[in-house]
Amino acid sequence: MLRTAGIHHITAFVNNAQQNVDFHAGVLGLRLVKKTINFDAPDVYHLYFGNENGSPGTIITFFPQDNARTGEIGGGQVSITVYAIPKGSMEFWMNRLDAFEIRHETTSRFGERFLRFSDPSGLLIELVEREEGTPSAWSFNGVPVEHAIKGFGGAVLSSVSSENTMLVLERVLGLLRIGEDDGLVRFQGFGDIGHIIDVNAENASWGNPGAGTVHHIAWRARDYEEHEKWRELLVQIGFQPTQVIDRQYFNAIYFREPGGILFEIATDPPGFARDEAEDELGTHLMLPEWYEPQRDLIEQGLPKIEVREVEGI
């Protein structure tokens, strides 16, 4: 049976591009590992943040667009993006959010304590202390490596057809159902990062896409051969997946699961160093070869952004 290790990446809609960089790099201390464009809308950036090299399971990506319509978090979406931080780091992050005057609250489920807050566009984020996962080696703007975000702790899915979504997680993606608590059911992949998924037990009402909401969640395939097997399986069970799409840094297959959430399966290889040296990741606007003839026009239409140290958002 095919089984995914867990989350490969999560992609969301947000507003202002520089504000997005200031928050996710300047406040959260993530590394901007790739600056490219939305291949389907080249007038919009596609920004990737993660650990020092953008390892699968650490990558959050954004389509930032000024004055974008504000979305509503709800069914058919990832409702909460969860990051894993090292044990003993919760107080550091509470103090850091206070210093940036970012409102936050603590909540608990499955015996774990979560620190919940929103990014400037309204994207819901939680931090949770976990032993699992390789520590990040990236330090920026006052986030030391001993407290740096490791990658995803997981995600909370909001489904409009919960039982069917859970069947997909268990019988298609190969996640293990490990518990239920206060209206949520927990599943686990075999990896050590991005592997804990909580799903609403009762059907949710539909959300609305827009800034501050997740566009899709991607699951890991270890290589190209396994990726093809995933597509064959999806076709066999009638999910009508897309063809394999070359996203430069991974190959992708997309399908909509019955609970309304857009799922992707993405390959671990080749990674973000295929077109930039590791010490230069995220410092250049990288375009696929078919857009290179339009580089000047594309660059003129994109706002200027920079990774910079910030004192407030």
UniProtKB/TrEMBL annotation:
Xref: Pfam families: Glyoxalase (PF00903)
Domain spans labelled VOC: 6-130, 151-268
CDD domains reported in the protein's UniProt record: PcpA_C_like (cd08347)
Single annotated GO MF: dioxygenase activity
PROSITE patterns in the record: VOC (PS51819)
InterPro entries linked: Extradiol_RC_dioxygenase, Glyas_Bleomycin-R_OHBP_Dase, Glyas_Fos-R_dOase_dom, VOC_core
Keyword terms, alphabetized: Dioxygenase, Oxidoreductase
Residue intervals passing through the bilayer: none
Full protein name: Ring-cleaving dioxygenase
Organism (species): Paenibacillus dendrobii
